[in-house]
C-alpha cells in the first residue's frame, strides 16, 4: 500500500516538524542562565520584604502584649506614679504577673545593653511568645528623689506633647522581638519603649521628646533601638536603607529610584 503521508513517515508523523520543535542544548542553557539571573536579582528583595513584614508584625504584637501588661499593673496597684514601692524590682514582679515569663536570663544581657548607664547588668526575661524583655530602669515617683526626672506623665499627656517625656516618663522597657535568636541588633530586632504612669509609648515616636529620644537624633543617629515609633507608624525599616531621605511625618519610605 502506498504511503499516503508524503512528508511524514509510514505512521503519519512529520519527522521534519519533530526536528524543528526540539531545543538545542545551547538554547536550554541560555534559558536557564536567564532564569538564574532574574532569580538572583529578585530573590534577595523578596526575602528582605518577607523579613521586614515579619519584624513589623512581631513588634506590633510585642507592643500590644507589653502595653496591656503595664496597664494591668495599674489595675492592680493604681498608676505607677502612685506606687509606694517604686523600685525596678517591684515593677518587674508586678509585670511578670501579666506576662508568660519562663526564664530569667543572665547570659543574654550584653546583647541588649546600652552604653553609658551600665544597663547590661539588668536581668533579661524570656517570654513565652518568643520575645525577650529588659527593664533598663525605673524612675522614682517620690518628691526629692531625682525630682528633675520624676515619674509622673500619662500616655495621653505624652501623646499630646504636653510634657518633656525624657524627664517625666517612669522607665524604659527594651524588647528583643525574637529573643536570643540573631541578629540581636538595635533597630533590627531590638526596640525600646518609654514607660508612663498608665502604659507605654514607642521611643522615637512623633510625640514631643527631647535630646536623643527623637527619631532624628535617635534612630537616624546612633540609637537604633529608638526606631520603634518609625516601625509601628510606617510599617517599614527603611531607616536601614535610605536614612538620608527620610523625614518624620513627611517622607515615610525610601524614594523609588
Poorly predicted parts: 114-118
**Largest sheet: spatial strand order:** 1-2-3-4-5-6
Structural class: alpha+beta
If you average the pLDDT, what whole number results? 81
Order of helices and strands: HHHEEEHHEEEHH
Radius of gyration: 28 Å
* Number of separate strands: 6
Number of helices: 7
- C-alpha geometry: elongated
Intertermini distance: 71 Å
Q: Which sheet architecture does the biggest sheet show?
A: 6 strands, antiparallel
Helix content: 25-40%
Report the sheet-strand fraction: 5-15%
Give a written overview of the molecule.
The chain is an alpha+beta fold. It contains seven helices and six strands, in the order αααβββααβββαα. The protein has helices spanning 15-21, 25-77, 88-96, 155-159, 165-168, 215-222, 228-234, and strands at residues 101-105, 124-127, 132-138, 171-176, 190-196, 199-202. The protein has a six-stranded antiparallel beta sheet. The longest helix has 53 residues, at 25-77. The chain is elongated. The model is unreliable at 114-118 (pLDDT under 50).
